[in-house]
Amino acid sequence: MRKLLVYLKDYKKETVLAPLFKMLEASFELFVPLVVAAIIDEGIAGQDRFFILQRCGILILLGLIGLVCSVTAQYYAARAAVGFTGQVRRALFKHIQSLSYTEIDTIGTSTMITRMTSDMNQVQNGLNLTLRLFLRSPFVVFGAMIMAFQIDVKCALIFLVTIPILSVVVFGIMLISIPLYRKVQQRLDGVLGIARENLIGVRVLRAFCKEDEEKERFWKKNEELTGLQKYVGRISALLNPLTYVIINLAILILIHTGAVQVELGILAQGQVVALYNYMSQILVELIKLANLIISMTRAAACARRIQSVFEIRSSMPDTGTEEPGPLMGVSAATEPEPAAAVPAVEFCHVNLRYADGGEDALSDIDFSVMPGETVGIIGGTGSGKSSLVNLIPRFYDATGGSVRIYGHDVKDYPVKSLRELVGVVPQKAALFHGSIRENLQWGKKDASDDEIMEAVRTAQAEEVVLGKEGGLDYEIEQGGRNLSGGQKQRLTIARALVKKPGILILDDSSSALDFATDAALRAAVRELSGQMTVFIVSQRASSILHADKILVLDDGKVAGMGTSEELLQSCQVYREIYETQFRKEAANR
Hints:
By secondary structure, this protein is α/β, with parallel strands linked by helices. The chain is 62% helix and 10% strand. The chain folds into 2 domains: 2-310, Up-down Bundle (ABC transporter transmembrane region fold), CATH 1.20.1560.10; 342-429 and 503-587, P-loop containing nucleotide triphosphate hydrolases (Rossmann fold), CATH 3.40.50. The chain is elongated and about 115 Å long.
């Protein structure tokens, strides 16, 4: 957790004032037993009503001052804890955004969500309690012991023995429970992972009647988590009874010793009451300290888990410095310079193996695409089509060979500049909460309504926009829940077209479209193909028939490359795909 404390630097004042006011409150609290002892020994014994009223007024004043100090400390502690957690959460989100797909795949979505929510809340609560009690409780404990020595040394020795015994109990339980709380949070990751899978795949579960199996799977994981939580809870629950037993035994001994001292005339009755009050204060503060340690233990375990994410470094560091002319100047609006007869995209004997993958997802991919060409990519399920196009915007790095754009390795470019050039429409259409305009302006922040509508018409989404109340101002729900699959796909295509990219990747982005809309979309894209380099990944042979070049993948390898007519003669894989989607007589023409 110490490494995360750097985010407290903007709250130095609060982190000082919160414990300071708590210690002031504790200081006034330590005077209360002495005032009570004076009331008993002088006021009541001497039947001096004025003295009693005077001392009662002092007690009220001490209470009011303590209340003001306590509320002020609570305010500063809460301000520091909430501000600190907000900064850590922002930094964690920013760090996660900097990680490559490889790290995100490895860590897991459910784990990262747990770090951002449950773990962060535990850290916030732990810090809040620490600022309020970490100095106050020990201060009261040792202050009460010192005050006891001022009253009577013999009775104060009981305090001197009791406090170390309590410390051994409290810190012993803390050392046992810290690693167990870490395991609890790991088990919680597993439970959240199953819950997330079930919520995302609820339709699939019901379609295959797997509800009972998933309930059983969730129940098993939940029982493991519950069992571990109970075990840790039983250990933590020992704190209160053990501290009560030790303190009450100490109180018994204290009262007996005090009674003997009173009998001998060494102590007054009020002094014994003061000693008892100091012992009670110690009991209350040690119970608070025990609960604080439990919270601190949880917070420390959660802080380590958060820190572990910060310590993960991206396998694709953004070290690019090259800004070649073609990269910065190419877009759909500005055609590449004719003099630059350099391939727009070039794969040079590329291999790709995912993290912990048993074998290569792509092997020896070697081809080039000239500016303005349209490339179709087709192949069976799992043949590596999406893996191939994900290398162009550098979502993943090739594990062998190189991917080059306009003659330069993609690793030489700043990631932001590279992705400004490439427009990507992923397989799964993803829209975010906000208006249609706000979603489409992701491609270009200052895009005008005319530019947006131009992209919308090209993506065959004009009827979607005009058919919605408010048009571009129509509010899209989270994940595009209020749109159909085809509508979401057309709007995601429009979003990529708004920024007029130099390289456009359509990764099976028309699977939810009917054939007529798909054909109209392909015709519109063909009109743009002279201005941009287009990659079309599709399961439909009809979607790529008119591509300048078709790349056929089979089990991560290039099975054929050429036009549709050439591949029908030379590539069996392509011919089989084509014949399953067209009539045999059409294939024989």
